[in-house]
Amino acid sequence: MSFDDTGREADQVFDLNIDTAGDLEYQTKISRFSNVSHLSIHISKNFGAENSKIFYIGLRGEWTEAHRHEVTICNYESAANPADHKVTQINPQSHFIS
């Protein structure tokens, strides 16, 4: 996540309240967070202080084993590019490849 990404619409926005005891819980939209493998949190403002201090962010949910999917790199051609297919034997009269 970069600062350019902060302009995008968030999956969920919380209106935070001051919680000195650490008792507040904020409910998430289950449909948005049912299969999360990466989470970025952006805190755009604080309660008027010059600096922000975050002591704890707790996440609750059910743990599931990660499914490892290997990276697949595929190239698809809508039309063959002759420069990609070097051939040494070309018959110039009929343009057939021998």
Automatic annotation (TrEMBL):
Protein source organism: Staurois parvus
InterPro entries: Galactose-bd-like_sf, PITH1-like, PITH_dom, PITH_dom_sf
Coiled coil, from the record: none
Family affiliation: Belongs to the PITHD1 family.
Domain PITH residues, every copy: 1-79
Name this polypeptide is given: PITH domain-containing protein
